[in-house]
Write a structure and sequence with these properties.
The chain has 203 residues and is mainly α. The chain is 83% helix and 0% strand. Helix 3 packs antiparallel against helix 4, helix 4 runs antiparallel to helix 5 (86-100) and helix 7 (125-141) packs antiparallel against helix 8 (145-161).
Length: 203
């Protein structure tokens, strides 16, 4: 119907605006797409998750945490629907893990591992690498410096070996940030150990 087609068109407008960094335009277009989809009886089962994914990315970019959480919850709820596309399922699990479990690295790690398992079975290098760099961030937050470094190096190697693509650039930047943080943590730990050693010898 007309509403379904209009919703799909506005979704495309929002997607293009998001990729171009026009967050205000993206937000407005995706909001219009959601309104139109709500009035359409034949929008199609895939439209909702696609719309939620784009809104999740938009709200994350603008820092609107309540809306990020709302979009993440809708995405996770959509996974219970029969016939869920495994590639989409992996993407949802990986993208929403850290947002949904911001204060619980262990829960985020479990969700990321589930998404990475699906992506690995599909041989989806982009999703596996995104999961690895997010797992590295979780490990770093939990104090697992060595594990964080391992995962970050794995993600960085995959990004460097891939053809230039949007995902590879983002993964490489995040992996380098984690590696920088692990080196800083090691230097700080070494400095503390040296300080204790000198303090002990003085005493």
């Amino acid at each position: 119907g007309a509403y379904g087609r209009a919703a799909a068109l506005m979704l495309e407008v929002g997607q293009r605006a998001l990729r171009q960094g026009a967050l205000g335009t993206a937000g407005a277009a995706l909001a219009a797409a959601r309104d139109l989809a709500g009035q359409a009886g034949d929008a199609g089962p895939a439209l909702g998750p696609k719309l939620d994914l784009l809104q999740f990315e938009t709200f994350a970019a603008t820092g609107d945490r309540p809306q990020v959480m709302a979009a993440a919850d809708r995405l996770i709820a959509s996974l219970g629907e029969s016939g869920s596309d495994p590639r989409l399922r992996a993407r949802i699990l990986i993208m929403t893990a850290r947002a949904r479990h911001q204060d619980d690295p262990d829960a985020a790690t479990d969700q990321l591992a589930a998404g990475r398992k699906i992506a690995a079975a599909l041989r989806d290098d982009a999703r596996v690498s995104e999961a690895n760099v997010a797992l590295a961030q979780c490990a770093l937050e939990a104090g697992g410096i060595t594990r964080a470094g391992e995962l970050a190096r794995e993600a960085l190697a995959a990004a460097r070996s891939a053809n230039p693509a949007e995902w590879s650039v983002g993964v490489a930047i995040q992996a380098l940030q984690v590696l920088g943080a692990t080196e800083k943590a090691r230097d700080l730990n070494a400095a503390r150990a040296a300080f204790r050693s000198r303090a002990f010898s003085v005493a």
